[in-house]
Write a structure and sequence with these properties.
InterPro entries: 5HT3_rcpt, LGIC_TM_5-HT3, Neur_chan_lig-bd, Neur_chan_lig-bd_sf, Neur_channel, Neuro-gated_channel_TM_sf, Neuro_actylchol_rec, Neurotrans-gated_channel_TM. One of its GO terms (molecular function) is transmembrane signaling receptor activity. It is found in: Postsynaptic cell membrane. This protein has 350 residues and is α+β, with helices and mostly antiparallel strands. The protein folds into 2 domains: 201 residues, Neurotransmitter-gated ion-channel ligand-binding domain (Acetylcholine Binding Protein, Chain: A); 145 residues, no CATH class. The protein is built from 9 helices and 11 strands. It has a 6-stranded mixed sheet with strand order 3-5-6-2-1-8, covered by helices on one side. The longest helix has 28 residues. The radius of gyration is 34 Å and the shape is rod-shaped. It starts with a helix and ends with a helix. About 2% of the residues have low confidence.
């Protein structure tokens, strides 16, 4: 029996070479090890199982005393199934044996430490979803020689992967889909099995460490206008806020993704927060200058007072507090101060 099995190690195990070998593929996603946004690489751990038939091979299980035997991998023909998205060598432990049943069915299972290419879109970071693919196909044999099929429906593969998932890191497996397209080349058609893996980033860490502190600092900057400008050095307070926010961004820089495809919205949010803080500091400088040099300023134009303190103030629900400044009874410098303060408040509210 051993000699009969080894006879099928050099060539495809079929009686007629015009008969294709049907290979069924099954996989289980055991862990999502990491995602490198800069290199556009996904690192996962898979267990891939394949089955195919050795034609003309069988034995009597009762006479031989077993229904299946294990043989060294190099002793029989193995289909050259590869994952096209592989970017590095397989670092998983090697398996040296396969099972052969008494009906000629070969059972082969191998672990794969897959470092694969994946087009990552981090525009909505940290609330982003990623769709990566694994494409299984024969490296050399066309569909006239090797045909590929899924052993289980993709819904069952997804369920098995969720049950077997051992890592609970930054990424969460949301869905798995599959299809079997046919690629045509000059040499002929190649069977392909494509598995789509949908991942979702767990955003709690980034919301707590990035978004909430930024919102707090911006709120403190907004409420700093409640400080009386005559008795408090408001400019020093705002410069301290800007310095603290800059240090915060430097410390949290490692949490932000780095990629050349597009700019995440969260980076725009941080830049906008910093720009508003700088604008608030400039507005405070202007107010301080007006407060100590208001005698040299001309009267505030009537159209500007009405536009800011009457119409625009309604957008910020400040009309009542602005009515007394429309009467023209305050000093010119005080009118300028109120215009600048309410204009900046409207900018933050919008």
């Amino acid at each position: 029996m051993k000699e009969e099995v080894i006879l099928y190690s050099d060539a495809r195990p079929v009686i007629s070479l015009s008969t294709p070998t049907n290979v069924t593929v099954d996989l289980t996603l055991y862990g999502i090890l990491g995602v490198n946004e800069k290199s556009q690489v996904l690192e996962t751990y898979l267990w891939v199982r394949m089955r195919w038939q050795i034609e003309g091979l069988s034995w009597d299980a009762a006479e031989c005393g077993t229904k299946k035997i294990s043989l060294p991998r190099e002793k029989i023909w193995i289909p050259d199934i590869v994952i096209n998205e592989f970017m590095d060598e397989n670092r998983a432990p090697e398996t040296y044996y396969v099972y052969v049943t008494n009906t000629g069915l070969v059972l082969d299972g191998r672990p794969f430490h897959v470092i694969s290419s994946c087009r990552l879109d981090i525009y909505t970071f940290p609330f982003d979803f990623q769709n990566c693919t694994y494409t299984f196909n024969s490296y050399k044999h066309s569909r006239d020689d090797v045909q590929l099929f899924f052993f289980l429906p993709v819904e069952q593969i997804f369920k098995n992967s969720l049950e077997a998932m051992t890592t609970k890191g930054e990424w969460e497996l949301i869905d798995m889909r599959a299809e079997k397209p046919l690629l045509n080349y000059l040499e002929g058609g190649w069977d392909n099995l494509i598995v789509y893996i949908v991942l979702r980033r767990r955003a709690t860490l980034y919301v707590v460490n990035l978004l909430i502190p930024s919102s707090f600092l911006l709120s403190v900057d907004l409420f700093s206008f409640l400080l009386p400008p005559h008795s408090v050095d408001r400019a020093s307070f705002k410069m301290t806020l800007i310095l603290g926010y800059t240090v915060f961004l430097l410390l949290m820089n490692d949490l932000l993704p780095v990629t050349g495809n597009n700019l995440p919205l969260i980076n725009v949010f941080f830049s906008l927060c910093l720009a508003l803080m700088v604008a608030s500091l400039l507005e405070t400088i202007i107010i301080t200058n007006i407060m100590y040099g208001s005698r040299d300023l001309p009267p505030l134009p009537k159209w500007l007072r009405i536009l800011v303190l009457k119409y625009l103030a309604r957008l910020a629900c400040m009309k009542k507090s602005c009515d007394k400044h429309l009467e023209g009874k305050t000093l010119f410098g005080s009118q300028y101060i109120f215009v600048f303060q309410y204009a900046y408040t409207l900018l933050l509210c919008t």
